[in-house]
Every structure is written in C-alpha cells, then in structure tokens.
C-alpha cells in the first residue's frame, strides 16, 4: 500500500520535469517553480507529509515511477488510452494546445496550416494531434523540447509552432518584436497525475484530493496564474476515473 | 520566465561537478578494464580472444544511453535496486573499456613483430615482453586516440541524465528551458566543457613530446 | 661434428643441437627441405650459402621463432616446438640470438637494451646488471655509447650492441645471423677474438656468414646450404680446399 | 521487487518505423563518416606537413571541436547559420555537424599514425625524388591509416551512435522514431531493448562494412594474413 | 681524383661532387670535422674506415638528408642545402641512394617499390615502368620475387631490392651505403659487375664499404675516414700497398 508507506515515511517523492515551462522550470533564484511544482507542493501539504521533488526528464518520467524511484509523477502528463495501459492517471489539469506564428504569416485555423512548416515537440500531444488533424500538406518538424522548437521558430527554420497556450503567452511577452499571435486551436487534453497501477488506496486519495481542489478553485488558481485563462471543467474526467476504481 | 544571470552560471558550474565525478569514474574503471581487454584481444588463447571480441562488439554496438538505462532501471525491474552512481560508474566502465581496449589493441599490434621476437629471444616472458618492450612503444601511438576518446567521455557523461543526474548538459537544458536563451546558455555550457577537456589535450601534447625522446 | 680441444670438462662429443629432417615452407615457397644437422657442445659451426638459401630460416627454427612443417629439432635437451610454451621459455634461457636486422629496442638506451634481460629474467640487481653490461660493451668497443638510443648509432655500432645484448646473458648456445656484416675488418677481428674466447669457455656457436675468410678462420665445421638443403658439410680445410659439388665450387670461386 | 509485465505488442504496429529509423541512421552516419574521414585525412596532412599557418589553423579547429559538446556544434550549424542567411535542412545540418566533429577526431588519430612512420621511410622516398605530396600519398597515408584503423573504426561506430543526438534538431533517425513510439506507448523498457538491439545490429553492420573496406584497402595484410 | 677512361663523351675531369670543409655534430658528438673531397664524373670512389667514423653521415650530407654545420657541398651543380627545398628536389632527380638499412616500403610489393618513383616522378607509364623494374630485378637476380612484400625477403634479397630500386631511376650519381654487406661472395661479384657496367656508362658512384677486397677491385679512389676526417685518399694500389698513417696501417692489418 503506497499511501500507507508515504504516510509512514512522512515524505512523498514527486517526479517533476523542471525543463518544461510553464509546468516545471527554475525561477530567478534557481528554485523549482511552475504550475506542476505549485500543485505538488499543495498536494504534499494536504497529505501532511514533506515534499521531495525528484528531477526527471521527459523520457525517464515513467521509468522513475515504475521502478519505485518516485511515488507519483506530476509532470504535464497527457492522458491517453495507450499510456493508461502502463500507468494510472488522476486528472488535475488540462493542456490547451494552440498553433502560433508571427502576425505576417497567413494561416487561419487548422486548414490554414496547409503547406506550412510547423514545429512540434516530438511525440508530445501536439505532435500526435496535428498529425491527425492538420491538412495533408502540413509539414511537421519535430524537436526534442519546447526550447529547441522555439529556437527553430525564432531562427526561421519553421514558420509556426504548436505549444501550450502558456508558452505562447510567455513568448509573446518576451519577444514582442516577433509579433506572435495564436493561429489555431489544436486540442484541449486533460493532464494526469501518474501513479503505479494496482494502488487503489493512493488512487482513491488522489482522486478525492483532486476533486476537492478542483471544487474549491485552488487548481484553477494555479492554472490561471500560468496559463492566462480559466481551467476548464474536469468533472467528467473525474467520473471516468471514479468508475474505474469500482 | 527569467533571463540568464550569474545565478544560472553557478548552477551550471555546480552541475559540472557531476560531469567531473562521472568522468573520473569512467577513466578509472574503463582504463583498467580496457587494458585487460586489449591484452585479451591479442591473447594467444582463442577462447579468451573470442570472449573479448564478443564483449567489444556488444558494448561498442549499444548506445551508452541504453546501457545506462538498462543497468539502472532494468536491474530495478528484476528486483535489484542499485544506486544511481553505482549504475553510472558500472555503465561508463563497461562502455569506456570497450572503446579503449579496441584502441589499445590496434596500438599493440602496430609494434613490429621483430620486436616481439627479440624480446622473446632474450628470455622475457609474455608479461615482461608487454611491460618492457611492447607497451612502451605502443603508448606513443596510443596517446592521441586515447585522449581523443577521453574528451568524448567527458561529454558523453551527459547521457547519465537519463538516470537522474543533473550534470552539465542537463543543467544547460533546464536553464535554457527557463530562460529561452539557448545561445547564451549553450555557449557557457560549451565553455565549461572546454575548460574541462582542454587540459586533457594539453597533457596529451606534453606526453607525446616527452615520449618522443629516443624514438 | 669436429671437436675442438679445450680446457672445459663437459662431455664434448655429445650433440647439443640435433636437427633432424626438418622441412619448412612459407605458403608455396619451400625454404627448408629435409635439413639434418648435429652440433656438438662447445663447437663453432658456420653456415654459408647463397642469399635466400634458408640460412636465417634454419636459425629461426632452432630458436622456435618459426613453426616447422616436418622433422624434429632438439636444442640443449629441449624439444623445440613453438606450441609448447613452457619448453620454449626454458629454451630461451639456454639460447641467445643475434638477428640479421639487429632488432634493438628503440625506446631504450643502449645500456638498458642490455641490462633489461639481466634484471628482468636473470633477476640480477641493477648495479650488477650494469657492471655486466659495461663489460660486454667494452668487449665490443662501445663503452662510450651506453647512453645513446639505437637511432643515434651507426650501422656497425647497432650491430655490436645487438651482439653485446646476447653475450651479456651468457647462454649455452649462441645463434649469430650475419653478425659481422656491418663491421669493418678491424672490428670483425675483435669480435672474432671475443667469440674464440667464448668457445674456449664452452659456449656453442652457430653463425651464418657470407664472409668466407671469417668462416675459414673461426669455424670447426662449415655447412654449405643450397636450395633449402644441407649440400655439403665438413671441417673448413676440407670444404674450402676440396669442394665436392659443382654448386659449392661455383659459390667459392666467385670470392673476391 | 517491482512487478512489471513486458509487452512487445507495439512492435506489430511500429516495426516499419524502427526499420525506417535504422535506414535513416545509416544514411546520416554513412555520409558523415565518408565526409569526416576525408576531412580528417586532409587535416592530418596539413597538421603534420602543411606549414606553420595551416598547422595552427587545423590545431585550433581540432581543439575547439574536440573539447566542446556535439550538441552545441549541431545547434550552431542548424540555428546559427540561418542568421547569416544559410538555411539548411535538419538532415544536411546534421551531416555537416557530424562530419566536422568526426573530422577533428579522425585527424588526431591519423596524425598519430603519420608520426609513427619511421624516418628512414621518408628519407628513402625523398631520395627517390618523390615530391612532398607524393610522399604523403604513396608512403605515409596508407600505412598510417592501416596502423590506426582499429581506432578509426571505433570512432566511426561512436559517430554512428552519436548521430542519435541529431534528433534534437528534428533530423529523422532511429532515436527520433524510438522517442515517438515511446511517447505514444510509454513502453520505455521495451522500446529501449528494441533500440539496443537495432543499434547493435547497425553497429555490427558498420563494423562488418569497415572491416571489408579494410581488407580491400590493405592488400598486404590480406596477402600476408596479418589480422586487421 | 682518378679518372677512368671510358667511351662517354662528357668532360671527365670536371668534379661532379665537391665537398668543402664540411663539419657536422649531433649535439656534443662531432661526427664530421672539416671533410673535403672531390669526385670526378664517372669515377667510382670507395669510402672505408672504422665503424662510427662518419661514413654514412658524409653520404647523408651529400644527399641533403642531414643539415651541415659548416662548409659547402655541391653535387651535380646543385648547392646542397636542406633548407632550399626546390634545389633539394632537383638534386634528388640526379642522385640515387641505397641505405645501409634498406628502407624498403613495407606496404608495397617488390615490384611496386621499384616502379613507384618511375611512375610518380619520371611519369613513365605503368607498363614501361614495370619493364624497367623487371629488367633491374633480373640484374640483381630477383626476377621471381616481384610479388613478394619486403617482410617476406631474406636479408640479401632485401638489400638487392634496395639496389634495384635506385638503379631503376638511372641517376647521374649513386651513393651506396654498405651495399653488399648482406650479400654472399657470388652475389657480390654479380652486383659488382653491374656497377662496373654503370661506371662505364658514365655514372658516378660513391660507396661506403668495409670489404677491402671489394674496394680494391672496384674503386678508382679509396678514401679512408678516421674520427670524422678524411685521413688518407688515393688510388687503391697506393692506399692498400703503401699506407702513410699508422691508423690506416692498423686498420688494414687486421683484415682476415
Ligand atoms: N642521430 C644521431 N644522434 C647522435 N649521434 C649520431 C646520430 N647519428 C649518428 N651518430 C653518431 O655519429 C657517428 C658516425 O655515425 P655514422 O653512421 O656516420 O658512422 P659510420 O662510419 O657509417 O659507421 P658504420 O660503419 O658503423 O656504419 C657515430 O658515432 C654515431 O653514434
Ligand atoms: N615470411 C616469409 N614469407 C614468405 N617467404 C619467406 C618468408 N621469410 C623468408 N622467405 C623466403 O625464404 C627464403 C629463405 O629465406 P632466408 O631468410 O632463410 O634466407 P637466407 O639464407 O638467410 O638469405 P640471406 O643470406 O639473404 O639472408 C627466401 O627466398 C625468402 O624469400
Ligand atoms: Mg638471412
Ligand atoms: Mg654507416
């Protein structure tokens, strides 16, 4: 029983990738910061244990979890059916993915991407979604992380890029001379706290916690601070998980 | 989002300590095992030679990333939880030895056959032939490729980020992702790597020059 | 083979090297075909013959540096067989060899070239080894070159170092391959004196040479090799004065 | 003990992707090896016999490239060149960066081979009237490369493995494909095992090819039966 | 130096090699001190002397393989100076050299060792070059070894390939360093005949040797070097029959 273990230890190890702003990053004082960090901090507080952040990277989030090197993962995990075969999820946020580009580039809506070269993070949700939804003639150029993709946009290797709305806000503020603007909505995907399968107690606790935090607006508060908009309703997602618990 | 500051610079420097620790582990372990391997590869015993060849083929053919991954998580999965540092040291040793062993084998073979014969004829045993006659001559030709590989090791320790080490390259990525100033960030990363690797190159030149005496 | 009278007490008539029907090819090239030879303890045998007749190869076979295809070789009681490493090692303690191409160790000084085996194999102390080395260097007239590296030596000096390196080990049998080829007459004479002393002391020597004067003067027995065979053998007076085969006659007639 | 059930069923859908990735890696690494080797030979020659200026320039090139991370070099080619108006595709940038990188390492390896050629060889060649270029071409290069061939081969295999890093600038190759599959399925262990096997296969392939080239190029070794 | 009468038309009394007060040291070791020497076109000069007396070094200086510390050397009208690469290249077209240690190219076959300079320097076609190479290989009795690699040769065979390699280029001046040291008397006789033919054809030859018989028979002039100096020089009859210095007397007396 992982939950009991955590309580007994008085500490929860949460895996967070600190290289994916605005979810996880370093602040000006080089302290962990970002939406995931705040949520993890709150989670630990509510559980009444100390928080230990385990720094992970995109590719080793799952191995860390599966080999007991972290108790849970709060690291902008998009929930997909394939992934759900390997780990369990408790929804806590959503990822609103858009395509943005400089103003002078003509592209409106997903159809407007035809023939355009768009940068995405390889294997991330925007990659899979755009592969499905964008017109045939769209060129998707895949990079390893957001920072590289941004660099590709700035250096003109791609015409536009797809990323979470929060990143767009950041960039627009930081590089005003690029005249970036949103061009198309891609998808809104629920994000989940990842945990090992067959841990019903922990899963139940996390679900209760998420529902409560969702209801009292604390999840929304964090979301608005980083993503520049309100957190959409997650009730239906919670119900799906609740159903799987029975 | 914040901008690149001296704080970030020191964060990089601090991460570089891991790079150094991991490199030293690789040099020490890989150097010793690599020498054994090189000797096995030129051994007169067929079985020894064959086993060493298999080892070199397999380890050289597998990306270090995969070796690291399997020795850390793979062992965990089958029930052995090992320390990350141990896993890194183990993987880097295996990997470094395979390459150094192969480089050194070439150098050993480049010593003319007549030198072996002369050493043999004055009664030196196999170990003595290596120690007194062959290795000193092989070392000279071995220095540049060895150092060349060692500086690659220093940089390849960055792959240890897969098992959780925040070493120089990973720290650079984190800083870059927080500041979105890739050129500045990576120029500093490159400079720190240069500061760690260049002394190796200098040492190599020094030893090359010294060993030239009497050759 | 001929026996030289000398003060050494050992049984001089017993053969210390026995080569029996030895054959050897390199791929399609047959280099030795059915060579048989006996060398008695303390004697000095000179092997002569045309270039390419297999002299160096025969010497190398005696010292287990080449695998033989057929026949047997016994040296100092050891059955020479490259595959048998233990025997080969014991063989090396008894046999010294000087190569046609010297094969000095380029990374070691002249002195170290000589002391190496003394300290590493014979376990002499450094001081002891250097005393021995300086003595043999003196014998070959190179006392002043002990600190030089091989590439700083002239041809004749390198050859003398190679000789000194083997002499220092004081083996029972010495194999010399064209050991005076780079020496001027004066030095040749000196090296010869050294060899004669060694033979008197009981050392057995086999030397390949193409200087007939040298062979005539030093050898108890002269072996003439031709096309990988022992064509004629006997005491020098007989070989040089009364050659039996036209090949040997032709070989000798062209001498300058 | 963690209970983990291995599941390779994703291979059914994705094996073509792995295969394609392997093919792309072969092209990428193969071209970089050829270019890098040529660059390495040229630099080694300039370093040892090209006069002061050339040898200083090559020396600086070697030190800068060897002592900085490959990733930075790739970024500079891919993101830096556009600022001076030269925009290359990811694959072209990757090949150029890898070739420049390998060139530096191979040139040092070959240089050590060149310097191990006995002085007598050079003297003999000069006395026959061969020009400097001819001496390099006929007398020095082949034996130098022959002597350092094992080290060169190791370097080339390293390059093949290092080419995985170019996925970062969107070059299509094996690791890139594997990352996609892994992100989709979360089957990290299985994907890593498959990747390991594919890379192992590739490296055996590369080694075999390099060995064959060695056997063809070093006629003397072949004839005398000396192992490579 | 002595002039040999021969059918070649050129002015035979004009010196083709002029060595003037040449000195040379390796660090503290003085190897040549004030050597002067003239060699006339088409003559054959033998340099003899003890091991280490500077014979090889003198030859190497003539061919711009060693920097000289003082003095001048002119060969075939070229001012020999290692620093002047253009002149050195022209010098090499006129001068051939055979090394004491052969220096064959180990990675090339015997045939290719010889054809290399013919095709690369003299720009002969491959077929032409091979014809020349086979002819000179025949001269030194190695027609059957053209496909072998140097390490497959016996000492004498390697030496003959080295001779053939230089001969094939047909230079104006040939420098031989102990070129018959690994040859048996029969072969020495053959090589000698080749040399005499070349001299008759107008080639100038300087050879270092320690076989006095050889020097006596082939040379127009014999130069005795001692301690880095030309000690005595003159026609062989005079040098061998009537040595002027005790050093030369001693050197000759020890001959076998
Ligand atoms: N590179 C060098 N460094 C130092 N000393 C050298 C070097 N080369 C030659 N010598 C010394 O110069 C002297 C003359 O050498 P050289 O090779 O000219 O002799 P040589 O007359 O040809 O003798 P030999 O008949 O033995 O070949 C020798 O004492 C040798 O030790
Ligand atoms: N490794 C080898 N491979 C092929 N043939 C070889 C090899 N070594 C020697 N030979 C050949 O064997 C023959 C005998 O060689 P060996 O060296 O015994 O002659 P030698 O009598 O010592 O001649 P020399 O007086 O010229 O030194 C030669 O024809 C040579 O070409
Ligand atoms: Mg021989
Ligand atoms: Mg000499």
Automatic annotation (TrEMBL), chain B:
Q: Sorted alphabetically, which Gene3D superfamilies does this protein's record hold? A: MetI-like
NCBIfam families noted in UniProt: HEQRo_perm_3TM
Q: Where are the transmembrane segments?
A: 20-40, 52-73, 85-104, 183-201
Species of provenance: Devosia honganensis
Membrane topology field: Multi-pass membrane protein
ABC transmembrane type-1 domain span: 16-204
Where would you find this protein in the cell? Cell inner membrane; Cell membrane
Protein name, entry field: Amino acid ABC transporter permease
Q: Which UniProt keywords apply?
A: Cell membrane, Membrane, Transmembrane, Transmembrane helix, Transport
Q: Which family does it belong to?
A: Belongs to the binding-protein-dependent transport system permease family. HisMQ subfamily.
Show the Pfam families listed in the entry: BPD_transp_1
InterPro entries, A to Z: AA_ABC_transptr_permease_3TM, ArtM/GltK/GlnP/TcyL/YhdX-like, MetI-like, MetI-like_sf
Q: Which SUPFAM superfamilies match?
A: MetI-like
- Superkingdom per UniProt: Bacteria
UniProtKB/TrEMBL annotation, chains C, E:
Taxonomy, superkingdom: Bacteria
UniProt membrane topology term: Peripheral membrane protein
Name the principal localization, coarsely classed. membrane
Pfam families, alphabetized = ABC_tran
Tell me where in this chain the ABC transporter domain is found. Answer: 17-252
UniProt keyword terms in alphabetical order: Amino-acid transport, ATP-binding, Cell membrane, Membrane, Nucleotide-binding, Transport
Q: Does Transport show up as a keyword for this record?
A: yes
SMART domains associated with the record? AAA
| InterPro entries in UniProt | AAA+_ATPase, ABC_ATPase_HisP-typ, ABC_transporter-like_ATP-bd, ABC_transporter-like_CS, MetN_ABC_transporter-like, P-loop_NTPase
User: PROSITE patterns in the record, alphabetically?
Assistant: ABC_TRANSPORTER_1, ABC_TRANSPORTER_2
Q: Name one GO molecular function term.
A: ATP binding
Q: Where in the cell is it found?
A: Cell membrane
Transmembrane portions of the chain: none
- Does the keyword Metal-binding belong to this entry? no
Record's family? Belongs to the ABC transporter superfamily.
The name this protein goes by in its record: Amino acid ABC transporter ATP-binding protein
Automatic annotation (TrEMBL), chain D:
Q: What is its main location?
A: membrane
Which residues are in the ABC transmembrane type-1 domain?
Answer: 22-210
Among its keywords, does the record have ATP-binding?
A: no
Q: Where does the sequence pass through the membrane?
A: 20-46, 191-219
Places the protein is found: Cell inner membrane; Cell membrane
Q: Which CDD domains does the entry mention?
A: TM_PBP2
Presence of the UniProt keyword Aminoacyl-tRNA synthetase in the record: no
Membrane topology classification: Multi-pass membrane protein
Alphabetized PROSITE patterns for the sequence: ABC_TM1 (PS50928)
Ranges in coiled-coil conformation: none
Keywords in UniProt for this one? Cell membrane, Membrane, Transmembrane, Transmembrane helix, Transport
Family statement:
Belongs to the binding-protein-dependent transport system permease family. HisMQ subfamily.
Q: Which NCBIfam families match?
A: HEQRo_perm_3TM
Instruction: Please state what the protein is called.
Output: Amino acid ABC transporter permease
